């Protein structure tokens, strides 16, 4: 009897994981449909900590699309240091932030992010901070970032990038109905 219960639990777990993957594949594919295009965005939530984004042209570029990985540079004016890396993993999706200096070298705070912990939806995925990022933030005096949760959302007309934590809610929304001229390659990428 225990074996039957265990088999049912394993099958249910596999089915739930399959549902997660299916929803997350729809989300991933919705971004992939924009491969090769760039879109301008505006800050729709933020505070004084986000002053680096004020008055700058904000552009996302769905630049590299592979079956299991997307690279989406986020340009802030003439700052081409940021690339979002969205990867399919066995348990869902992973978001990492690839930060580079103008010479292409990695920033000391780079490849931070997290993995999805639930299926989310075809329109919205959330990425709570992972242990690698927590350790990196602490080593670099960014203890306020150890509770970060990043969110990405997509509809037919909008893409949203959001960072939340205690006392912080930063959000940029991009208009997917109006492609813009492609920006230069992000720093450290050809």
What does this protein structure show overall?
- With 190 residues, the chain is an alpha+beta fold.
- The chain has a single domain (2-180), classed as Calycin beta-barrel core domain (Lipocalin).
- Helices cover 21% and strands 41% of the residues.
- It is built from two helices and eleven strands; from the N terminus they run αββββββββαβββ.
- The protein has helices at residues 2-32, 131-139; strands at 38-45, 58-61, 64-65, 69-76, 79-89, 92-99, 112-115, 124-128, 149-154, 158-165, 168-180.
- Strands 1, 2, 3, 4, 5, 6, 7, 8, 9, 10 and 11 form an eleven-stranded antiparallel beta sheet that branches.
- β10 (158-165) and β11 (168-180) form a beta hairpin.
- The longest helix has 31 residues, at 2-32.
- It starts with a helix and ends in a 10-residue tail after the last strand.
- The model is unreliable at 1-18 (pLDDT under 50).
**How many helices does DSSP assign?**
2
* Termini Cα gap: 59 Å
Report on the biggest sheet.
11 strands, antiparallel
CATH topology: Lipocalin
Portion in strands = 35-45%
Q: In total, how many beta strands?
A: 11
Q: Radius of gyration over alpha carbons?
A: 18 Å
Q: Approximately how much helix is present in the residues?
A: 10-25%
Which consecutive residue ranges, at least 5 long each, have pLDDT under 50? 1-18
The class by helix and strand makeup works out as alpha+beta
Using the 3D structure, state the CATH architecture.
Beta Barrel
Assign the CATH class. Mainly Beta
Mean pLDDT rating: 90
CATH homologous superfamily caption: Calycin beta-barrel core domain
Number of domains: 1
The H/E string reads: HEEEEEEEEHEEE
Protein name: Secreted protein
Keywords: Signal
Signal peptide: 1-18
Organism: Shewanella algidipiscicola
């Amino acid at each position: 009897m225990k074996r039957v219960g265990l088999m049912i639990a394993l099958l249910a777990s596999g089915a739930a994981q399959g549902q997660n993957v299916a929803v997350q594949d729809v989300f991933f594919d919705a971004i992939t449909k924009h491969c090769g295009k760039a879109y301008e965005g505006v800050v729709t939530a933020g505070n004084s900590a986000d002053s680096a984004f004020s008055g700058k042209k904000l552009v996302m570029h769905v630049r590299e699309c592979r079956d299991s990985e997307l690279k989406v540079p986020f340009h802030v004016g003439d700052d081409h240091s940021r690339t979002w890396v969205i990867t399919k993993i066995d348990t869902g999706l992973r978001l990492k932030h690839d930060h580079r200096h103008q010479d292409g070298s990695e920033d000391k705070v780079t490849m931070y992010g997290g993995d999805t912990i639930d299926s989310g939806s075809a329109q919205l995925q959330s990425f709570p901070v992972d242990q690698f990022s927590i350790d990196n933030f602490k080593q670099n005096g960014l203890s306020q970032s150890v509770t970060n949760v990043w969110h990405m959302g997509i509809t037919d007309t909008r893409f949203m990038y959001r960072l939340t934590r205690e006392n912080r809610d930063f959000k940029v929304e991009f208009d997917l109905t109006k492609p813009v001229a492609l920006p230069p390659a992000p720093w450290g990428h050809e």
